[in-house]
Specification:
Elements: H1 3-37, H2 43-55, H3 58-69, H4 76-81, H5 90-114, H6 118-126, H7 131-159, H8 163-168, H9 179-189, H10 192-227, H11 231-234, H12 241-247, H13 251-259, H14 264-270
Helix pairs in contact: 1-5, 1-7, 2-5, 5-7, 6-7, 7-10, 9-10
Length: 271
């Protein structure tokens, strides 16, 4: 395999992953916010449907997309009328990668928004912010770590997508051949050297993405830990509870001295 061919396949894979992540970002975040802030009948069913692409075989997801976007499918006639060809193009690969990565971003956004106290949003509303302004200036900054982490996982999932992409986009060299598809096709053709080169490129991309995620998350956690004041630093001159307790008189002893009736020795002394 030549270096130019390896670079072309890697570039196409990055393009598919970027387009897929950008396409699902807004709907996944909006759905995550809805699930985190609203309780409605059938919510568990919606959450189960969202998670289906993660548990179904990717080939089944690809077959469903092929039946939906094909020429005989419900949306195939619409695309044909508009002169748009989706099936067996890299756009179809991006759609398949986005569908498979959508649950990762949606559920991560849901958990991130659920961790934000709704009282912050209500307080922002009392200060004159609109619901959209409160979301952009209060809720989203507090949940941005989880949202970005979910987006990165969706992107890395798109980089390695194989089953759904193979059915809806095919394995067309120079057109739809991503890293995962290229590895499979070269193994089938007996080109072990080319398959290993593509495996190395895929490993490098996945490792780089995970290093960026873990490094950024570690910096955010460390900065938050440094910004939180320690309990002893809030008021260092405040006396400790144990010292205050030892300097106070015992309530039981004081009560016994005040309420003790005079004994016989006291009566004899008075006599």
């Amino acid at each position: 395999m030549s270096a130019a061919e390896l670079a072309a396949i890697t570039t196409l894979t990055l393009r598919v992953g970027a387009v897929a992540t950008a396409a699902i970002l807004l709907p996944a975040v909006a759905l995550g916010l809805l699930l985190a802030r609203r309780s409605f009948r059938g919510k568990a069913l919606v959450q189960a449907l969202i998670a289906l692409p993660m548990v179904l075989p990717p080939v089944a997801v690809g077959l469903a997309l092929l039946l939906l976007l094909g020429r005989r499918g419900p949306l195939g006639g619409l695309w044909s009328a508009l002169g748009i060809e989706l099936v067996f193009t890299w756009w179809a690969a991006a759609i398949a990668a986005g569908v498979v990565g959508f649950p990762l971003l949606a559920r991560a956004s849901e958990q991130a928004f659920a961790a934000v106290d709704p009282r912050y949003e209500r307080l922002a509303r009392t200060l004159g912010l609109s619901p959209l302004q409160a979301f952009l200036r209060v809720t989203l900054p507090l949940a941005q770590r989880g949202v970005l982490y979910g987006a990165l996982f969706a992107f890395t999932r798109a980089l390695g997508e194989f089953g759904a992409t193979a059915l809806v986009a095919g394995i067309l060299p120079g057109r739809t051949e991503t890293l995962a598809l290229g590895i499979y096709s070269r193994v089938q053709l007996g080109e072990d050297g080319g398959a290993l080169a593509l495996c190395a490129a895929s490993f490098a991309l996945a490792l780089a993405a995970m290093l960026v995620a873990e490094g950024w998350l570690g910096k955010e956690t460390a900065s938050e830990a440094r910004s939180e004041p320690q309990a002893s630093e809030v008021n260092p001159n405040r006396p400790q509870a144990s010292g205050v307790h030892t300097n106070q008189p015992q309530a039981s002893g004081a009560r016994s001295n005040l309420t003790r009736p005079p004994g016989r020795n006291d009566e004899r002394g008075d006599r």
